[in-house]
Amino acid sequence: MPLKSIVVTAIIAFAAGLVFASFAGYELFIPGLLEGTWITIKITLGGALLAVVAAFIAALAKMYGPAPIRWLATCYIEVFRGTSALVQLFWLFFVLPQLGVTLSPMMSAILALGLNIGAYGAEVVRGGINGVSRDQWEATIALNMSRPLALRRIILPQAFIAMIPPWGNLFIELLKSTSLVSLITISDLTFRAQQMNQATFRTLEIFTLVLLIYLGISLLITFGMRALERIATGGIVRGRAS
Amino acid sequence: MFWDWEYAFEVLPVLAGASIITIQATVLGFILALVLGLIFAIMRMSRNRAISGATTAVVEFIRSTPLLIQIFFIYFVLPEFGIVLDAFLAGTLALGIHYATYCSEVYRAGIEAIPRGQWEAATALNLSPTTTFRDIIIPQAIPPVVPALGNYLVALFKETPLLSAIAVLELMQTAKILGSQNFRYIEPITLVGGFFLIFSLIASAANRYAERRLSTIGKR
Amino acid sequence: MVRFSGVTKRYGDLTVLDNLDLDVAPQEKVAIIGPSGSGKTTVLRMLMTLERIDDGVIYVDGRPLTHMESNGGLVRANEKYLRSVRGDIGMVFQHFNLFPHMTVLRNCTEAPINVLGLPKAQAEERAVELLELVGLGDKLGEYPQRLSGGQKQRVAIARALAMRPKVMLFDEVTSALDPELVGEVLNAIRMLGKQFQLTMLMVTHQMGFAKEFADRVCFFYEGKIHEEGPPEQIFNAPERERTQQFLSAVLEAG
Ligand SMILES: Nc1ncnc2c1ncn2[C@@H]1O[C@H](COP(=O)(O)OP(=O)(O)O)[C@@H](O)[C@H]1O
Ligand SMILES: [Mg+2]
């Protein structure tokens, strides 16, 4: 989405939010929704951190690991991409305790959502690394660099830039999937919306407001990733091998 | 023993029955997504700035917010306007609308990949914009994006468990009920996971096959 | 210094290098010429260990490059051994292959610091020296994207030299450049030929430069050295028909 339309959307969202909040008797909703928003943000941040770590480990293991590790990484990626996020969440929340491992709901949430997005992220990382041209690898060989050194200093920094936009999309998918945690008793934004809906029956106002809050966080993520991309490229159009 | 085969075989037929609902929601939702997605894509390319701008805003809004809330919205809010849908319809509608926004991006990429020459040739033949779209552009734009659409079919399929939140008796809801009745979640939920895994793997394989076929056709 | 002994390279059914023998003395400057597809690039890439060898052995400074001695016989070299021999070799590529995310200076210090283990200050001092030598003392903080092709190629030369190789390989280093930028790169090569005691193998289409600079010219044809000799002989009195044809075609083209 071009920057201009982001700004336009943000302004419309903000204005609409204000209108709704004012005639909906916002003092009734705002505190609860804000608490829910904070929990949503915490899960998003925790999940994002886990996703990035899991994605890099899985991608590097799949690309450069010895056979058993490669196999393990492939399993992780396929299982978490192949089953649905809600199934994973419920599995951690309902099944794991019956196998003798009880995690807090918050732990289950971050673990399930982080690992789920991490599996998709692994493919992004792999794509980014494969996207760096062969010429760059050859230059590192001509300079007698070891493969780990070449990967760390030459290949990954270039791959990193190409990975930023797809990671932005994944973080938004992660944010969206955090709403599932309301189904395992965590009082996130979605949970609060449900709760207040049952208490006040101001259905339209509550769900509209909540959608706008999610939109706001999404736009923040988009802005953040744009900024990161600008910093990473240092203002110069690079990424192309020269 | 963690895994109880006897219980697993007991719940399997029930889950198989519920999977019909899951598949129905997937198919209906995806058809809606395909049709609505194309409409979104064409509206976004409209020369009228108001239409294209508004469509862009709506599409981005739907894409940036959680499907679960959208399901709640359709299920709980529409009745306030006198539109009462049963849970299955409300959920399927939400799935379809949500994924229509993804499909519209795919169509758009397909349409934008059509060389300018095709548009110019259509103009030279004095075809109307509607005919140009229907007979020249769309037939060329869609085949190359079939694999991308296929990916979203799989993605939509994997989000059908969200319908359990409004008590649609699809796979996940059924598994949860079985679990709470028998105080044993291990088998039903794991089986549901296995079901999704198998179908996703098959679908991705089919999709890769389609992609290969398409790329060989393209080379001819 | 460098010796190819019965080296063969195939891609599928295509034999690109056919039982090649080539001996290069220390500090000798060898120009490799020949039609496109004759295997010139492949020779350099084999020596840089960018390609696997199918048959034969390459020796660098008397040590087998792609094989190592084990129980009295030669076996295919492992990564560790490869890295210990290929430190003697540096290469400059047709398309520069600079690191786009690093400044000119860091392009030239990255490997010396992390591979040779030089202290940063020392590596930088040496890199600045080399960059000044190729006329880029004022571009240290620039990113490659902002340089002209000729400047990029001179950075690439400095970067390779910073690893203190004994053998330098140049693969059509001026082919990707606009004509007016060729001279500055050739000057840089001339200069380092004088300043350093390097063995050089260069694939080139600059016949004038080859004539003036090389000690020996090898004409490649279909994966073999078809004719070789001192430049005067190859350029003024080529003996074989293919060589004559190739040279007249190149001269006609300008
Ligand atoms: N990676 C490769 N796979 C298949 N064939 C190759 C590959 N690299 C080079 N070749 C072939 O090997 C032959 C020699 O290539 P090269 O050494 O690059 O020729 P030159 O540099 O003399 O133009 C050419 O016919 C080329 O097509
Ligand atoms: Mg070549």
From TrEMBL, chain A:
The entry's keywords: Amino-acid transport, Cell membrane, Membrane, Transmembrane, Transmembrane helix, Transport
GO biological process: amino acid transport
Cited Gene3D superfamilies: MetI-like
Source taxonomy: Bacteria, Pseudomonadati, Pseudomonadota, Alphaproteobacteria, Hyphomicrobiales
Membrane topology, from the record: Multi-pass membrane protein
Transmembrane segments: 37-61, 73-94, 106-125, 154-172, 206-228
Family as reported in the entry's similarity comment: Belongs to the binding-protein-dependent transport system permease family. HisMQ subfamily.
Ranges where the ABC transmembrane type-1 domain occurs: 37-222
Tree of life domain: Bacteria
NCBIfam families recorded: ectoine_ehuC (TIGR03004), HEQRo_perm_3TM (TIGR01726)
Name by which UniProt lists this protein: Ectoine/hydroxyectoine ABC transporter permease subunit EhuC
Organism: Nitratireductor aestuarii
Compartments, as annotated in UniProt: Cell inner membrane; Cell membrane
GO cellular component: ATP-binding cassette (ABC) transporter complex
Automatic annotation (TrEMBL), chain B:
Pfam families: BPD_transp_1
Record-level GO BP terms: amino acid transport
Transmembrane segments: 20-42, 72-97, 189-210
Keyword presence, Membrane: yes
Membrane topology qualifier: Multi-pass membrane protein
Entry's localization field: Cell inner membrane; Cell membrane
InterPro entries, A to Z: AA_ABC_transptr_permease_3TM (IPR010065), ArtM/GltK/GlnP/TcyL/YhdX-like (IPR043429), Ectoine_EhuD (IPR014341), MetI-like (IPR000515), MetI-like_sf (IPR035906)
Coiled coil: none
Record's keyword terms, sorted: Amino-acid transport, Cell membrane, Membrane, Transmembrane, Transmembrane helix, Transport
One function term, GO molecular function aspect: transmembrane transporter activity
A GO CC term attached to the entry: ATP-binding cassette (ABC) transporter complex
First-listed, main subcellular location of the protein, grouped into a coarse class: membrane
Signal peptide (from-to): none
Residue ranges constituting the ABC transmembrane type-1 domain according to the UniProt record: 19-207
PANTHER family assigned to the protein according to its UniProt record, in alphabetical order: L-CYSTINE TRANSPORT SYSTEM PERMEASE PROTEIN TCYL (PTHR30614:SF0), MEMBRANE COMPONENT OF AMINO ACID ABC TRANSPORTER (PTHR30614)
Family stated for the protein in its record: Belongs to the binding-protein-dependent transport system permease family. HisMQ subfamily.
Name listed for the protein in its UniProt record: Ectoine/hydroxyectoine ABC transporter permease subunit EhuD
Organism listed in the record: Nitratireductor aestuarii
Automatic annotation (TrEMBL), chain C:
Protein name, as recorded: Amino-acid ABC transporter ATP-binding protein y4tH
Annotated ABC transporter domain residues: 2-247
Compartments where located: Cell membrane
The keyword GTP-binding is assigned to this record: no
InterPro entries: AAA+_ATPase, ABC_ATPase_HisP-typ, ABC_transporter-like_ATP-bd, ABC_transporter-like_CS, Ectoine_EhuA, MetN_ABC_transporter-like, P-loop_NTPase
GO MF annotation, one: ATP hydrolysis activity
Organism: Nitratireductor aestuarii
Lineage: Bacteria, Pseudomonadati, Pseudomonadota, Alphaproteobacteria, Hyphomicrobiales
Cited SMART domains: AAA
Keywords: Amino-acid transport, ATP-binding, Cell membrane, Membrane, Nucleotide-binding, Transport
GO CC terms in record: plasma membrane
Domain of life of the source: Bacteria
Family from the record: Belongs to the ABC transporter superfamily.
Membrane topology: Peripheral membrane protein
Cross-referenced SUPFAM superfamilies: P-loop containing nucleoside triphosphate hydrolases (SSF52540)
